[in-house]
Amino acid sequence: MKDYKLLLAGLALLLLLIVIAVFTWLWIHNRKNIDPLPIMANQNEPTAMTEGDAEKTVSKSVLYVQIEENLQAPLDEVIVSFESRYPNVQVMANYVPATTLLTLPNNTASKSEHSNVGVGTDMIVANDTLTTERLAPLQAELKNSQKAVGQKEADTNNADGNTIDNEAGKAKNSSTETRTLNSFSYALKDEQALEGVILTDNTAAINFRNFLVSSVGQDILKKYDYDNIEGYKNSVNDLFNPTSQAKQVSGDTSVDVADALSNGE
Description:
Distance between the termini: 90 Å
Number of helices: 12
Order of helices and strands: HHHEHEHEHHEEHHHHH
């Protein structure tokens, strides 16, 4: 009986030692892999397209923005906040009247930085809606500018006698599609959507647009009585919120259900 108890005690001790040994081996082995990817990402990249890629891409760049002049007060504050978030980006703001907002300045210095599209303005911010009709002349100008850039490159190659490079340049230029201008909403004013448009592939322009519609940008615009674009959500919620709809029709209880359904078709 005594030998049986000693045997059980020995087995229990052996199992305990095995468990301790396995735990120790796992602990030592796994210590090497603590925080693998996050630390590497933070060391090598600043922050973001997840925040890091975007900020790295726009480092040491200039962003040219043409803005309607009555937006100067809020946009000045937005730009200051944006530049503090992206210290390697300098925003060059050109405030103009609404009548010349969609007329691009003849800025050869900035054009050289965006030679692939031939225009010196990365983004336009309007205090109004930028419809497809309003953007049509600008779209045509963008297309002509891009063609002019391609022709200039071709003429340069011809002058240098680079026939092969010239043909390659022509093929590249013909295969490059002109950027389609699509406006984006960034705020509301008296239920009127205010919009902007990106003209180039400058990554800083994409980041500035995202900053405008971020909570920080929206809070700044709110201080100047521009409603948050989240106001759109309220309109959508009204469609599915019986309580909200009931408040709207509370003054008229004689609603014809058949008429309501036919109006919704």
